[in-house]
Amino acid sequence: MPFRTASLVVFLLAAVAVGQTVAPRGSFATLTGRTVTDPPKDDTPRKPEEKEGKNGNGDDKDKKDEKEKEDKEKDDKKEKDETGLAKWLSAHGQATTVSQANWPFRSPYVGLNSLRPNADLDSTSTATLFLASRLPWANGEIVFNPEVAGGSGLSGTTGMAGFPNGEATRAGKPEPTPYIARLFYRHTIALGDEIETVEDAINQPAGTRPKDRLVWQVGKFAALDVFTDNAVSHDPRVSFLNWSLMTNGAWDYPANTRGYTYGSSWELSVGDWSVTYGVFGEPTVANGASIDPRFLQANGHMLEIEREFKVNGRTAKVQFAPYMNRAHMGNYSEAIALNSDAPDVTATRRYRIKYGFVASYEQELTDDLGLLARYGWNDGHSETWAFTEIDRNGSVAMLLRGTRWGRADDRVGFAAVVNGLSGPHRDYLAAGGTGFIIGDGRLNYAPEWVGEVFYNWRVRPGLFVTFDMQGVINPAYNRDRGPVALAAVRLHYEF
Fold it and tell me: Count of domains in the chain?
């Protein structure tokens, strides 16, 4: 534990040290309509004698050349922001530590993947560098995100389907481990003449882009980067922590154990409508670290349809997204038929399909209050493969800005979630089977209920401290255990 704590401190101190050399988020200037590779022309009217030089001796021509050189140096300097970074380059970073504890709770028995009933405290940490650059050709960009992660979730990140820490993974390495989170190419194709301004942001250089467009990206990234986006609950580093709130828990989204994969996506945006399709690699084993090289046999697909509109003058958005995964998965019913006394879903693995859908409704209620409602479903016959063991998911979340009490950059979040299992999945767990995240050795089934509330306090620009409370009824769908009370403190620094 001392080593782990020291490592987390080192992470944050390093991130703070680096952050002092980089401008805070939002300091990059927005580009004008011209491209950054073309210096502005000097259109200042000149007197006739300035064009050829007086007396034809070339002295004025030399002065003109020198002035043009100085102007070019000034223009080149303008092409950089106050940090010295060119405007075609976006550079950001983040460091996040989450320390979370659970109080003791009722537990007449404990299984292989049960949440430990005694009081427990664990911490996780991540640090990421977000680099994005426009390329020499029009509308091409490349994104590179090295990342370091360490620590562990409660009980080794097991024991609840809606796990309470979205920064925790099942990588099994508490020591800080570096890896490449994202490395992908992005290309934008204009579908109209209307242009909109894009502010500098994470993985997005400042500039302009066509309002109606087709965006293609290919490489290594997270499926969550392009799907189920919303303004209320999408990033556990700044918003809700629970796994079943950071995205729709019923979407077994393709990813390795750290949440990233290889793939490609196409996003079509026209007016208030957008349609996004993506295809991604699946892990070799359930929640595994490597991606199955048999891409034609192991792949995940998603199609998301989104529309924005107004309700009483306030922005609203609906999303509907069916998905289909194919991977080397087991089947719960086959596992029970093979061995009803001690079913093992891994013994039935072969390439098979899992399918489902997710839907959401997002609504701006006031200038400071937003609402998000979600529902998700999957067939629940094939083994949970990449995300978490949820076959049915319903949630409601609200996010409030602190404008009323003079803290406009603070956020308060309230959410309630109910998670459920399919019939074959619950029968498998009741017979003593285990998945990769839950399995108490037996099951007295009931839906898993989660409540979460947090206050995100902006201490100063770029530095946030969050106080988070969660309550879980029927952890891992077992009414014999719990309820569980949890508390967390999250420290987040960004630049």
Answer: 1
